[in-house]
Amino acid sequence: MADRPEVHSQASQRDPNARPRRDMKDVGSEDRFSDTSGVLFEQAMAQTRMAVCLSDPNLPDQPIVFANRAFRRLTGYDEDEILGRNCRFLQGPKTDRAEVSRVREAIENEDVVVVELLNYRKDGTEFWNALHLGPIYDAQGKLLYFFGSQWDVSDVRAAREEERHARAMARELSHRIKNMFSVISGIVNVMGRVRGVEDTASEINSRIHALGRAYETTLDEASVGVIDLGPAVKAILEPYAVDERVKFLGNGAQVPFSAMSLIGLVLHELAANATRYGAWAEGYDGQVSVDWQRRDGNAVLTWIETGGAPISGAPAHSGTGATIMNRMVAAARGTIEREWKPEGLHAVLTVPIEGGNT
Ligand SMILES: Cc1cc2nc3c(=O)[nH]c(=O)nc-3n(C[C@H](O)[C@H](O)[C@H](O)COP(=O)(O)O)c2cc1C
């Protein structure tokens, strides 16, 4: 049966009770498409861009009895090369036999099945066919046809493969970076012990670990170049945020991967200070709320402490942590404003973001 919309008789449109077109009879022995919906179905099948075919399970080796134009276009075969053959003629040397067996079993069990099969066009070129099969019954429940729709998903598969590759690379990179952080950390420990400066070494190490955490959560996404700030902020603060004494307020802002070192280190310094002198200091029950937003081309992190150890203004001299933080912020052309209010520190980090979308 051909799908020729141009021959779809005007008569059948005028007369809903018109007999089906002669070629519709090729579908089978029964007159199943003789009503209006049948004619509409026929026209829809002819016009759809989705390749569609019907096979007759009541004939030996289940031959195709209908294939629409899109099927012919997809496979490159003419109608007379398709009708009367089992659809396996589209398979070839690289078609996965296990998937073909799944199709065979589904057909035997009269199940619906969706598989992706490597198929071959008439000219020998390969394409990935997302094949959807299902049985069609008459009103008495007798199996009449199998319906098949074919969709060329070669592009989708290629994109998926690329994505898979990028993720595998990111995982590998993440693994290597983690190793590198632990090697650096080991060197710092050994040097600290040898030189008798264990305290300094452990301080440096806590910074290295904060950086490690900042990268760890973000590397899986690194392939797309932007990082979700929320999960990264939470991971960086995880070792400090005891007893739910931190409130995360930020939205789904994203930042470029390159901003993570700075954000990781600044959060570490703020958290370390809160633990030593502020909201998280021993003997107090203070809270920290952390907010993050994308605003006017900047990532803006707001850190607000309340209920911690009482403070009376800015510290007399800034420690090493603050010096490192200030240098890094300046190098990134950002700013960090700190205000020592009676109830606790308020800090706002602003980092200019080039590229990266929100
Ligand atoms: C309606 C229908 C459409 C089918 N379309 C395809 C197809 O596009 N590509 C394909 O490789 N197999 C297709 N098949 C599957 C094969 O025809 C066949 O059932 C499968 O290869 C398993 O049987 P076999 O192990 O005897 O080959 C289709 C089957 C049916 C019933």
Task: Write up this protein.
The chain is of the alpha+beta class and 358 residues long. It has two domains: 5-156, Beta-Lactamase (2-Layer Sandwich), CATH 3.30.450.20; 157-352, 2-Layer Sandwich (Heat Shock Protein 90). Helix content is 40%, strand content 23%. It has ten helices and twelve strands. It has helices spanning 10-14, 36-47, 69-75, 79-82, 97-108, 154-195, 198-218, 229-237, 260-277, 320-331, and strands at residues 51-55, 64-67, 113-120, 126-137, 143-152, 226-228, 246-248, 254-256, 287-295, 298-306, 335-341, 344-352. The protein has a five-stranded antiparallel β-sheet, sandwiched between helices. A hairpin with a 5-residue loop joins strand 4 and strand 5 (143-152). Helix 7 (198-218) packs antiparallel against helix 8 and helix 7 packs across helix 9 (260-277). The longest helix is centred in the middle third of the chain and has 42 residues, at 154-195. It is elongated, with a radius of gyration of 33 Å. It binds flavin mononucleotide (FMN). Flavin mononucleotide is lined by residues 53, 55, 62, 86-88, 90-91, 100, 103-104, 107, 117, 119, 129, 131, 133, 146, 148, 150.
Q: Which helices and strands, and how do they pair?
A:
Layout: H1 10-14, H2 36-47, E1 51-55, E2 64-67, H3 69-75, H4 79-82, H5 97-108, E3 113-120, E4 126-137, E5 143-152, H6 154-195, H7 198-218, E6 226-228, H8 229-237, E7 246-248, E8 254-256, H9 260-277, E9 287-295, E10 298-306, H10 320-331, E11 335-341, E12 344-352
Helix pairs in contact: 6-7, 7-8, 7-9, 8-9, 9-10
Bound molecules: flavin mononucleotide.
Residues 53, 55, 62, 86-88, 90-91, 100, 103-104, 107, 117, 119, 129, 131, 133, 146, 148, 150 line the site of flavin mononucleotide (FMN).
